[in-house]
Q: What sequence folds into this?
């Protein structure tokens, strides 16, 4: 009974828990519930991915209504992988969040935070699990609306404008997706992704379909912060509460990338989407521009959190690059990077959250000498940074290796140099922080800076160690990513 | 213990020392004991592999595949055997020397200093024993990371600048060029294993081979080929024991060792000769060789002069590899050993002079031979070996390299070697010359004033070693012979 309904439980569990948190009101109760739910979700995600990998794609009909009338949830290697990532990040972020939320949001409003976080989590899980185009839009809105609230909870008053900015851009993006889905519905009369794929094949040349496709792609590009539609991201990440930055940075853009993969490869005919419209070239160009521009911008930021936010824009470029390469190693690299970058950025933003807790600042000049005062925190940040650069034995190296292989297979020498050049720019913006933290003398302070509390350090280090683990054991990441890539490309040929 | 276990212990064993050293923070004697025991054990482990390798065995062990087809694997072949012996063998004298130096010079953060050394050595062992280019690259990067804190040791503005150049050059070249070359090789051939005769033949055209070789040669920044040589003088901000072991032995020799590995086992000598892909490298290496020697002449700071001398001597080895002949490669391999002993002695002496007499520049050394006769005598012996004069070990390696130019039919390169050796004389011999034959300044203290015994013993040991190698060159060359099919016994 439970086993058969796992795909629904995956999404429904946090959805039910969210209003319960609201009713519980007590900070500790809401936190306990949210944490427990995130761990249960993780267990479900593991089971689902295992089933999807070994038995085959899971089809689940909501309420027993078969498509095209009912909503279908469909879990294959690709979204099973993304579900696992989402749940894993939630499961480590929630234990981490407690101390940080008490500090930055306060005990009275904490239960609201957990409510909204669970809603956001629900939305992201829903986007990933669903096999229905309209349902995807609904969950996109759930996750977006809740992330506006989460961002606005930041201590800095600029969080409000950041949230507002994201609201405007995010709503435009969401509306574009809705319009696009509407066009597709008008052209085909179905919203189920598999049905859509079937019917679109015959009419893919029609202007309605092309327009719809364009709307969806632009809408999703906004959500995944593809250069030059990334303007909302740096402010949002910089001013959001630490725990929110960790969660959103590691999940939300990744889910949008997944949605783009789903539309570009499953719903639309790949050869058509990439052949006639020339999407591949557009994506590669924007990805390349994003990597260069965002990395350079990251180098000149004085706020370290903002610097790594720009780095996220650059790293999204890598994922899109993998999609644009349109071959097996490239796509494998792109999907693996989705996972590996979440680990790296998660660890980095967690470490920055620890520093923000103790220093009440993440400005570069304030972080002078912090490496000797908070050795464990900075240690995790260094590992995350190395993974971001793509040093061997870290997770980031693995995905960049595949991206590079994909570029060389296409004989795209410039792209290969760009991938490496982006890594070198990452060296600069990571090493800036390391130099400040270890080689600058610490300023004289009234009270010595303490190491972060254990409750925050343990999750931070879990993610940091995950960067090392997945840099050495790649059966899970590369194995699943290449299976997912084969699935997507196989649908094409 | 099986050979496979020995290899794994040699590569990962030193890492065990790191937490022990950190724990022994409070009692320096215990901490140093850990270092000495680890260094001795490592050397014995590596030495126990020697009989197998010289008998023609290739002990190997494969761990697991990081990505499909790309395994973390080790295999000991003659070149790696030699490099690991040199690195592990010279760690012990360096450790003794470092104890004397760090205490005599009252350096701070000694625990961190001693904790980084085993990591660097483990990385060097990984490089030496790597069975494929992928494994080698992993340990190559690890070596850069492990040595960064050592270079930045003093944590002041100069250290920060020096370490920045060091790190940026090594990481920049390795990620920007070497990694590209490795992925290209993998993409073209489907393997990264080091195989006798190379793996590229038949997979890649001659023009592409030249470009690929360029990516490798410049990508191996540790070999300090111009224009990527600046990190070496910059890294001299490190304490002298670091310069001695890492920048005369482990790091730079890891660079030229990788060059030799790539030339012999990835390209293959025959393939290089057929395609003439390495012809351009002859010019770049010759240029580096001569110009670094010329710059060394102009440097008054003793360590800076030694650094440029190192750049020049590394180019000898790269040139030997570029010749793509058996003698060139064997001569290059031999020069790894000879130069390691010679140069480490020179650095030891520079450090001893700093600790005992607080002098850093060449023109301050007048008459120092009367106060520090043992140190300056050791300097003289090592200088003779580095120059390549008998009875220094360097005589043999330079002889083989010169013979390699004839074998490769580039006799004009012999002139490059000869000219550079003259330049070596010009920048090295004046140092002991000043010390012994010029009068000391009037205010100099009289009487003997040598560095602490812990500094003195290692430098005497390595100085005598570089002379002893003159008589032990033949077995080393014989060990290396099998790696080249075109080899001729000297």
A:
């Amino acid at each position: 009974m439970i086993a058969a309904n796992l795909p629904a439980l995956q999404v429904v569990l946090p959805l039910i828990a969210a209003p319960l948190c609201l009713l519980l009101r007590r900070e500790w109760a809401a936190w306990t519930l949210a944490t427990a739910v995130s761990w249960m979700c993780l267990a479900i995600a593991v089971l689902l991915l295992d089933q999807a990998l070994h038995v085959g794609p899971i089809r689940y009909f909501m309420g027993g209504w078969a498509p095209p009338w009912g909503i279908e949830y469909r879990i294959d290697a690709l979204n099973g992988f993304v579900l696992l990532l989402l749940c894993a990040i939630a499961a480590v972020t929630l234990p981490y969040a407690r101390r940080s939320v008490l500090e930055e949001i306060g005990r009275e409003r904490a239960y609201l935070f957990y409510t909204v976080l669970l809603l956001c989590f629900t939305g992201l899980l829903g986007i990933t699990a669903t096999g229905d185009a309209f349902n995807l839009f609904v969950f996109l809105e759930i996750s977006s609306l809740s992330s506006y609230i989460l961002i606005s909870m930041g201590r800095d008053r600029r969080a409000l404008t950041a949230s507002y900015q994201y609201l405007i851009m995010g709503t435009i993006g969401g509306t574009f997706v809705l319009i696009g889905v509407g066009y597709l519905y008008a052209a085909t009369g179905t919203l189920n992704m598999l049905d859509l794929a079937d019917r679109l094949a015959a009419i893919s040349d029609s202007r309605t379909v092309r327009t719809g496709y364009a709307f969806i792609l632009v809408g999703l590009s906004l959500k995944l912060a593809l250069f030059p539609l990334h303007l909302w991201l740096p402010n949002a990440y910089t001013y959001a509460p630490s725990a929110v930055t960790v969660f959103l940075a590691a999940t939300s853009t990744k889910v949008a990338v997944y949605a783009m993969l789903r539309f570009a490869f499953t719903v639309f005919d790949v050869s058509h989407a990439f052949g006639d419209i020339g999407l591949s070239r557009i994506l590669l160009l924007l990805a390349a521009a994003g990597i260069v521009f965002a990395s350079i911008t990251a180098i000149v930021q004085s706020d370290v959190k903002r610097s790594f936010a720009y780095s996220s824009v650059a790293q999204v470029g890598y994922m899109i690059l993998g999609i644009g390469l349109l071959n097996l190693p490239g796509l494998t690299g792109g999907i693996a990077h989705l996972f590996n970058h979440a680990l790296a950025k998660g660890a980095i933003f967690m470490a920055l959250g620890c520093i923000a807790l103790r220093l009440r600042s993440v400005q570069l000049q304030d972080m002078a000498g912090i490496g000797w005062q908070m050795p464990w925190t900075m240690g995790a940040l260094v590992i995350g940074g190395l993974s971001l650069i793509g040093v061997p034995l870290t997770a980031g190296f693995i995905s960049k290796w595949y991206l590079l292989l994909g570029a060389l297979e296409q004989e795209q020498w410039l792209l290969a140099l760009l991938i490496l050049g982006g890594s070198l720019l990452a060296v600069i913006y990571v090493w800036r922080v390391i130099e400040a933290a270890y080689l600058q003398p610490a300023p004289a302070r009234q009270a010595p800076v303490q190491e972060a509390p254990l409750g925050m350090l343990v999750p931070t280090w879990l993610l940091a160690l995950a960067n090392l683990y997945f840099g050495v054991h790649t059966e899970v990441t590369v194995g699943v990513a290449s299976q997912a890539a084969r699935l997507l490309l196989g649908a094409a040929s | 213990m099986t050979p496979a276990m020995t290899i794994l212990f040699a590569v990962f064993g030193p890492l065990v020392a790191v937490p022990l050293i950190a724990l022994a923070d409070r009692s320096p004697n215990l901490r140093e004991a850990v270092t000495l025991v680890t260094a001795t054990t490592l050397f014995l482990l590596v030495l126990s592999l020697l009989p197998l390798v010289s008998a023609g065995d290739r002990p190997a062990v494969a761990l697991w595949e990081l990505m499909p087809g790309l395994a973390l694997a080790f295999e000991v072949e003659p070149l790696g055997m030699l490099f690991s012996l040199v690195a592990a063998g010279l760690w012990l004298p360096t450790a003794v020397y470092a104890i004397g130096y760090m205490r005599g010079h009252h350096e701070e953060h000694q625990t961190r200093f001693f904790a980084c050394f085993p990591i660097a050595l483990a990385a060097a062992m990984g490089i030496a024993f790597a069975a494929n280019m992928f494994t080698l690259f992993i340990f190559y990067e690890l070596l850069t990371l492990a040595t960064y804190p050592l270079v930045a040791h003093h944590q002041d503005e100069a250290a920060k600048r020096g370490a920045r150049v060091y790190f940026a050059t090594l990481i920049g070249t390795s990620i920007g060029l070497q990694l590209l070359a490795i992925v290209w090789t993998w993409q073209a051939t489907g393997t990264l294993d080091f195989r006798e005769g190379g793996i590229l033949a038949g997979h890649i055209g001659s023009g592409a081979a030249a470009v690929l070789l360029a990516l490798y040669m410049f990508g191996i920044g540790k070999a300090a080929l111009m224009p990527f040589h600046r990190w070496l003088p910059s890294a001299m901000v490190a304490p002298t024991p670091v310069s001695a072991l890492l920048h005369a032995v482990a790091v730079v020799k890891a660079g030229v060792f990788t060059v030799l590995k790539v030339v012999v086992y990835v390209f293959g000598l025959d393939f290089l000769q057929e395609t003439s892909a390495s012809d351009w490298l002859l010019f770049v290496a010759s240029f580096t060789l001569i110009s670094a020697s010329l710059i060394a002449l102009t440097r008054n700071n003793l360590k800076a002069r030694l650094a440029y001398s190192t750049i020049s001597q590394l180019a000898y080895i790269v040139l030997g590899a570029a010749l793509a002949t058996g003698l060139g490669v064997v001569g290059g391999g031999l020069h790894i050993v000879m130069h390691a002993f010679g140069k480490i002695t020179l650095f030891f002496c520079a450090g001893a002079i700093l600790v005992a007499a607080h002098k850093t520049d060449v023109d301050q050394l007048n008459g120092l031979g009367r106060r520090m006769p043992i140190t300056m005598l050791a300097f003289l012996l090592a200088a003779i070996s580095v120059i390549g004069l008998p009875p220094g070990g360097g005589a043999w390696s330079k002889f083989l390299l010169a013979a390699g130019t004839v074998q490769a039919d580039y006799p004009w390169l012999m002139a490059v070697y000869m000219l550079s050796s003259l330049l070596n004389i010009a920048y090295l011999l004046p140092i002991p010359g000043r010390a012994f034959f010029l009068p000391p300044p009037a205010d100099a203290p009289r009487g003997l004033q040598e560095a602490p015994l812990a500094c003195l013993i290692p430098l005497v040991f390595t100085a005598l070693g570089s002379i002893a190698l003159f008589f032990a060159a033949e077995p080393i060359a014989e060990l290396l012979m099998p790696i080249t099919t075109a080899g001729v016994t000297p």
Notes: The longest helix of chain B spans residues 157-189. Chain B has a mean pLDDT of 86. The first strand of chain B starts at residue 60 and ends at 67.
